Structure formats: C-alpha cells, structure tokens
Amino acid sequence: MTQFQPPRGTRDFLPEDMIKRQFILDKARETFEQWGFDPLDTPAFEDFALLTAKSGEAVKDEIYYFKDKSDRELGLRFDFTVPMCRVVANNPNLPKPFRRYQLGTVWRYDRPGAGRYREFCQADIDIVGAPGPEADTEVVACACEVLRKIGLSNFYVRINNRKIISSFLEGLGVDAVSVMRTVDKLNKIGEDEVEKELEGKGIKKDDIKSIMKFAKIREIDRAVPLIKDDRGREGIDELYVLLKGLEKFSCAVEVDMSMVRGLEYYTGNIFEIMQRGSELTVTAGGRYDRMIEAFGGKPTPATGISLGVDRLVNFIQVELGKTGVEVYLANVDEKSREKCMELAKQLREIGVNVEYDVMQRPLVKQLDYVNSRGIKYAIVVGEKETKSGVVKLRNMQSGSEKEIEVRNLKRVKDVVDSE
Amino acid sequence: MTQFQPPRGTRDFLPEDMIKRQFILDKARETFEQWGFDPLDTPAFEDFALLTAKSGEAVKDEIYYFKDKSDRELGLRFDFTVPMCRVVANNPNLPKPFRRYQLGTVWRYDRPGAGRYREFCQADIDIVGAPGPEADTEVVACACEVLRKIGLSNFYVRINNRKIISSFLEGLGVDAVSVMRTVDKLNKIGEDEVEKELEGKGIKKDDIKSIMKFAKIREIDRAVPLIKDDRGREGIDELYVLLKGLEKFSCAVEVDMSMVRGLEYYTGNIFEIMQRGSELTVTAGGRYDRMIEAFGGKPTPATGISLGVDRLVNFIQVELGKTGVEVYLANVDEKSREKCMELAKQLREIGVNVEYDVMQRPLVKQLDYVNSRGIKYAIVVGEKETKSGVVKLRNMQSGSEKEIEVRNLKRVKDVVDSE
User: Under CATH, to which class is B1-149+286-309 assigned?
Assistant: First the structure.
C-alpha cells in the first residue's frame, strides 16, 4: 500500500469504470436535451445556511461542512435541487417553464459501508414554473426513457401524492408528518414494527388499523371515499393525471398509498422508479412547490427527478470495454513511425480513436501493450505497407484480418463501428 | 437581492453559459479520445498532506482546507496532476504508457477579482510512463488540435526545457531555483525590475548580464554554446525533438529561454500555448518525471498539459444560442396537445431536441415563451395539421416557413441541422 489513498468514502474511477459512467451520463444528457431540458451548473459548495434551510434534520448531519479563510460557513452540496432553487430565486426573469438538467457530483457524509459512498454522481431534471401534473408526467417519462436507453427493461414507477396522505391523516386527527415518517419504513421494518412504532407515538388502535388499511391501497379509486377535503381531492386529481399520462408514455405504473419519500420538501405527486424483482429504487423525485419561495424567490411551483448514476452502472447491458481506443498503429521501425502518425491524422479526422507508439518500443512490446490495454484493432505499419498503400486491420480478439487500401481509410471506420 | 448568493469567488452557469462550456468540453473530449486518451476521475477532495507534498508554498495557501468528522485533514483538489500521480502510484500495474484525460472542476483559494474565480473547469491530458520528448509532442499537438476545433486560429506554442535553464544557471554558480523565480516575472514586471530583483538577491553584475542575455535567446542553436554539462545537452536534445515534432503537426512554435513556468515539479520540456496579439496563455504544461515516485510509486516519467475551459469560452467562433431546444411544438387547443406529444416522440427518436407545452397555456403565450427562450423553430399543431398530415416548420427568427409531411419528419432534422 502506498502512502496516499483516496479519502474515506470516496474512490477513483479508472478508465474501465469511467467509460461505464460516461455511457450513463451520455444517454442521460442526450435524452434530457431531446426532451427540451437545458444544462445548468452551480458551485460545488454553498452557504451552509442555504443547505440546511429547508432540508430537514437528517440531511444536516450528512453535509461536509467547512469554513473559508474569511470564516464563511460553507458546505458541499448534497443534491442539485437546493442550489437550483437558489438560482431560480436569484434570477426571477428566467422564462417559465424553466426546464433544466444538471449532471455532476454531490456529497453526503453518510456512514460508509458496502457499496455506500460519500461522493456520487447524479443526473437531475426539473421543471420550474409549471404547477400541473403534466410537468410531473414529463420528468418521470423522460427518466424512464433514459433507463430504457441504458438497457433496463423490467422497471415500474411507484406513485403517490402528498396531499392525499396528509388529507387522510389530518382527517383522522393525527400528526401527519410524524405518522408519515413511520409509514415510510414499511418496506424496511415490516407491518408489525410499523404498528408498534405508531402505538409508541400514541396513535389509537382504531386509527392504526385505518392507517394500515390505507397504506395497502394500490388503486386511486379505493382512496377516493377516504378523502374528505378539497386539498385531498386535488391530490387525487393530480395523481390520476400522472397515472394516465405515464400510461400514454408506455410506462408501467403502480399507485402505492404507503409511499411517502423521505425528503420533507415534497408537496404533491411523488414518484420512485423501481427495478422489478430486486425492488431497488433506481430513481426518485417529486413535486416541491414551496422551496423557491422559502429561499426568497417568488412563489414558484417545481417538480423534478434524480438519477443515481453510479447505481445505474450495474444495469448496462452492452459490452463497453476497458478503453476508448479503437485502433493501435504499430510501427515496425522508427522510420515507419512517421507513417503511423500520418495515418493517425487521417483516421482521427474521420472520427476513429487512434493511438501509436510514443516510446520507441519494438513491435512485440507494442502488441503486448495493445493486448494489456484491451484495444480491439491493430494495424502493423512497415516498409511493405508504406510502399503498397495497403494495410491489414487485425481484430486482436478473433485474429481475423481485413486488407484496407490507405486511400480508402473510411473502411476502417466502417469495420470499427460495425463489429 | 435575495437571501442566498453563490459563495464568494464562485458563480452559477445558466444554460447560455453552460452550452458554451459544454461546447469546449465536448470538443476536448472528442479530440482526447481520438488521440487515444482514456477518461479518469478522482475525488473532489484529497488528503491535505498529499496536496501539499510536492506543490510548493504558493499552492499551499490556495487550497480549500477542511476536516471531516473524524478530524481527517482534507482539501479540495487544485489540479488534476497530483491526484493522477496518486492513482498511478496506487495502481502500479496500469499498462504504460497510461494516457488519460480528466475533465472537471478544481478549486483555488485565490484573491478574487475581475474575471478571477475560485472554482474553475479544466480539461487535462497526460501521458505516464513514456520518458521521451515524443510524448511531450503528443500532448501539445493534441491540445493544439482542440484549440483549432474550438475556433482559435492565431496561436503559437512557447517551449523551453528545465534542464537547459538549470544547467546554464548552475554553470554560473547561482541559485537556479531562486533566479528562475525572478526571471519568470519578465513579462509581468519587465527587464529593469528583474535586474533589480536579481541584484537584491546578491547576483553579480556580470552574471545578471549573462542571465538577461540568455533569457532573450529564441533559437535553440544560440543556447548550445552556453551549455556545458550532459544534463543541459539532454535538455537541448529533448527541446529539439519537441520543436521538430510540433512543426510536423503544423503547430507554430517559438523557443523562449526566459520561460520558466511557475510550478516547481517540472523536470524537462515545458510549454505554454499563447494567443497571439493578446499574449494570453490559454494552455500550459510540462514534463514532471519525479512526482509519482514522490507519492510512493515506482519511478515513472510523466508529461501533460491542461486547458482552462472557462477561459477558452471567450474564443468560440460559432453562434451557440441560449438553448439546446431546436423545435417547439405549439398546440392550438388541449386536444391537439396529444398530437404534439405524439410528434415529439417521433422527432426525439430521430434526434431532434423538442419541447411542447406542459402548462395548458394559450397559443400566444406559448409563442411568447418560444421567443423569450430563444428557440429557433416552432410548429403550430391544430386540427388542420392533425387531419392533413402536413405541418409548417417556422423559423422564428426569419419568419420563413417550410411545409413538411408528418410521414416524412426526417426533413425537420435536415432543416434544423443545415441552417
């Protein structure tokens, strides 16, 4: 072990891992842009007061906190939502809806453990200024499209609406926020434990029974008779539009009245995308209509969803390889190195990723390197090739070779792209 | 002014600015990959001890320092070179040459001022394990190619070699590092001030004269007779290969014996790419053969170059616009919104960036939005278009319209790409 390691909870991404991460980020960005989202970037750190203003106690403990040399209290961002709300509050004249994506790193001072890191890569989209469930539909459908492009097939969207849950719980006369916190643990700790915890919170037996019955509802229509106020009915309507909208985008959807979502700032529709089978949450989000106002902006509705890039890497279905280099030009002697550089120039111009020797190594060493780096194709360049104007493109895995005329190098690109 | 602003020395990148930054990053990445560099990512923060180990006093004061909750001393990275050397030291079996690029953010706690920020975006390439000047040539030529793709035309590469300067100064019997620090200021403070500072350092009149004469050398051949030892002659040979190599890549090159480059870790060829006229350094780097060893790795030569992305944004020659959205589908009524979503799906599938209304706004408001956001094309969709199967693609800037059959939407892509 050498002197210095990456700090606890962080890790390096060597090329093989970075190529996977970039695959996800490229698919996300391409999709986000096709769906009309524009890029935004914000600083890695923010005022500590901003980060802790609206995010609840749990997150507060997870922030990397530091002071700058003028004793300003700062913290590394733990999501992209809080900084974006600050940007919108600071720029009231941004055309609405403001549709933005943000790709990058966030930090949480979590307990590190198996597969849990303190630095991770996220891809977010949000629509700001659109109050209706059509905007919720849009962000969820767009996230589903990203997942499809990555290669996930067996996933579904779990949806619920905060207004429905609050309305029902307030109708019972119980502390809605406190009960929601407990119900949120249903999948983790199970029915019995949830009931026990609710008892501990002083909820009456009958109410616990009603709550558990409500939490098991999986169809909107069955929730309707239990909702008595306008706010709850608004939630029902919003959830219904989201459900129907997602079906139009061919997304599998399930209503789940037990779903609460941890973050305290959600105000309407909330959603999670689940990998069926593993029941792993791959993506999540919701509507948060009061946060921008809380940061000093005009009252502005907002909704968004967040993809955990590092987690999605596990679902990639295509073989990506250890390197982006497609063709290695191996020179037989120092003289043919010049020819390699010339060929490299032409190949790069037509978009082929090319490498040649910069270490004056003998041919055998160069080919060892090609194999150890996992480069798929090699062309050996010597006097013969220079004179004849014909090179052989060798597939280093299968051993097969194709003869290609130097004046027709476009064929190298075709072979590389096709196989 | 609202409650929260970006922390001092940082800024937000709204879509218009992010689109420019991404243009640079995309060109850099595309070029780096074509030239056989693979991506690497490292944590945003590192052990403070690592950051300060080899980087000299000046950088030490510029690091964002903090402690984590276990009292570990950490700091935000100020460049990509130090973390990469740690990675190479930790992974001795990486195939060599290890050619990597890294794109991302670095932080320096600089005095903020006009156009000076504490958080900036960088694009680096390095070749590790190749000792010769061919590798220096490769990184510089690749950086020049990025600059050309961005649209810079009038630039040149200033080169020098640390071995030559050291050899010459040590030959005089003066403190080479101390003198280099003063000579490095030549462009900033001028000849008279440099001479004064050297006098202040106790350098003899005759030696100052020799140093100033040496610093004015702009041709390798004129330096040769002044170099007396093997190390200096090695430097001459390396600089010569770099010069000739860059000329082969059609890069304008100037040897400049006054160029030193601030960072203390350079050991051989050093280079800066200058915008002619402004004489602004747009890119810089050099060879640093001893740093990996200093971090506990095997002795491993390395060379690299770094592009300041935020500075390069000023040199973009193409019009990039305020948004990535290419076509807005405006619906005449709620019924035709469905048709918009259907058309959007088809257009996105062929790679067109599309947006439609998610706010149930009347047509006039939708078109106001199209203009305020700077979207170039709009298609108005109503009953007529749905029935006839023909839509009009309107250029919102020129007012010109093109009729396009819905069964032939590929034409939308052609128009968008061609204009």
Answer: alpha beta
